[in-house]
Amino acid sequence: MNDVTIIGSGPAGLTAAIYLARASFTPVIYAGLQPGGQLTITTEVENFPGFKDGILGPTLMADMQAQAERFGAKIVYDVITKVDFSKKPFMLWADKTLIESKAVIIATGATARDLGTSAEKKFGGRGISYCATCDGPFYKGKKVGVVGGGDSALEEACYLSNLCSEVILIHRRQEFRASPIMVQRAKSKSNIKIMTPFTLGDALEEKGQFKGIKAKNTATQEVIDVPLDGLFIAVGHTPNSEIFAPFIEVDAQGYISTHDHVKTRVPGVFAAGDVADPLFKQAVTAAGMGCQAALAVQKFLEH
Ligand SMILES: Cc1cc2nc3c(=O)[nH]c(=O)nc-3n(C[C@H](O)[C@H](O)[C@H](O)COP(=O)(O)OP(=O)(O)OC[C@H]3O[C@@H](n4cnc5c(N)ncnc54)[C@H](O)[C@@H]3O)c2cc1C
Question: Does any ligand 1 atom lie closer than 6 A to the CB of residue 105?
Fold first, then answer.
């Protein structure tokens, strides 16, 4: 029987583990298919506090894990495939292995949706990004593209327009799904140019470096070259909450709904990080929620 089982080993899960292990609760963390979480697939992280020269994503996550293990946290390299939160102790399965736990922290993150293009396969993380807040500052004064038609795409375009010389907003339909106010805001920016209705083709490249994208006008079938220094794909995220949804509340997009910061509707089951955060999705906010979840678990177990 575990006191507390943490599902996910990104910044939320590992921060929760550090706090719980220091408080002598011996948390058991299931690392999932991506041990260390999303930051393990990026290079420089420049906005995690405490690293004035930045730090490599994989190094940051390896250090977080070592910090949790130093205090006694136990990492299991397995995936939780099924849960039953309808009775206590809570039951979790890693394939056929049953795990019983008094408390659970869900920290399974949210996966950025891609478009499945060959350009993304080749230049993901090297010219094509899924997070303007994370990577926008690398493109200061440069020309970038943003792909998408929802609120988050328009918000990313507006954010980037304050940093970049020019932002090309590319959307496959004539009309935007985003709220009219967001569309108005984007249209009012002199350095945002809107391209509709266009879909993406192959990347433009020079000596293996990303130089832009081919785009097809779906009304005229004309294909044009769009030279760019970087491209941001902003077509949403999928929260990794599917297996928990029958027991806890999730919103229309699948993000776990919480009250009192990190509590789900099942007492003893907590959620932290991107899986419960449709808004911010940053390493430091995930870590903060992990800390909150750990402190809430301590209170729950003590009472
Ligand atoms: C390319 C890239 C660059 C980024 N750059 C920055 C940046 O510079 N600064 C910044 O602040 N943020 C950045 N982010 C965002 C940041 O990585 C996330 O906000 C943060 O990692 C969220 O942490 P998390 O712990 O909630 O989830 P994640 O990091 O997504 O971790 C989720 C964990 O859950 C595990 N998991 C999922 N399902 C299961 C399961 N069923 N069983 C067991 N384990 C499971 C996964 O294996 C993983 O370990 C970037 C994201 C990406 C993709």
Answer: no
